[in-house]
UniProtKB/TrEMBL annotation:
Listed InterPro entries: Homeodomain-like_sf (IPR009057), HTH_TetR (IPR001647)
Classification lineage: Bacteria, Bacillati, Actinomycetota, Actinomycetes, Pseudonocardiales
DNA-binding region positions on the chain: 43-62
Alphabetized UniProt keyword annotations: DNA-binding
Protein name per its UniProtKB record: TetR/AcrR family transcriptional regulator
Domain HTH tetR-type: 20-80
Length: 207
């Protein structure tokens, strides 16, 4: 079979149910490798080794190395969000904005080091090379904002929910950076206590 026919065959099969299943299987293997080893030296060849295939096969299923990386990081952020929601359920549920954000913060603060490391590295890549890795940053904001908007009181307008969600997201990101760069471990906790009080006051305000 010549190269053109091989490429056509792969691309046709990639859209089939079997091809989609194979794509998800590859993505899961690459995602697990990132969680275990970080993404500092991420490459298609490393990803292919983790998935037990070749880099050419990965490129039949994913548009590029950046596409594969973005989708694997998306899956890891979904894992982080699922952990927060599970913690909320285990705690009997939280019925205030401050309470829900508190659970999310504690989950983020105490999560497994490998997950935290790779997601911190993804943010670093976005800042280091925004042209190449802009999608990592945009994807992060969209995923987390959706969760934080869902924490807001139902009676609030869509604009108000988004404004408060933006505030919470930016503040929590700042706390994460503070924990990584400061020798004051209590600083982020003190800051979060102030954020929680502000959210309680915001929720007490009428529409």
């Amino acid at each position: 079979m010549d190269d053109a026919a091989e490429r056509t065959g792969y691309r046709r099969s990639a859209g089939s149910p079997r091809g989609q299943a194979r794509r998800l299987e590859l993505l899961a293997s690459v995602t697990d490798d990132l969680a275990a080893n970080g993404l500092v030296d991420f490459s298609l060849r490393r990803a292919a080794k983790a998935a037990g295939t070749t880099h050419k096969v990965l490129l039949y299923h994913f548009a590029s190395a950046e596409d594969l990386l973005a989708q694997a990081v998306f899956a890891l952020r979904e894992r982080r969000i699922a952990n927060a929601l599970a913690a909320m359920a285990d705690g009997g549920g939280q019925h205030t904005l401050a309470g829900r954000v508190g659970v999310a913060w504690r989950t983020l603060r105490d999560e497994e080091p490998g997950l935290r490391r790779v997601l911190d590295q993804a943010v670093g890549l976005t800042m280091y090379d925004p042209e190449r890795y802009a999608e990592l940053g945009r994807g992060s904001t969209l995923q987390y904002l959706e969760l934080l908007v869902s924490f807001c009181p139902q009676r609030w307008s869509a604009d108000r929910k988004r404004e408060v969600a933006q505030l919470v997201l930016a503040t929590l990101r700042g706390f994460v950076v503070h924990r990584l760069t400061s020798d004051d471990p209590g600083g982020a906790e003190a800051g979060f206590a102030a954020l929680a009080r502000a959210l309680e006051r915001e929720e007490a305000v009428g529409d």
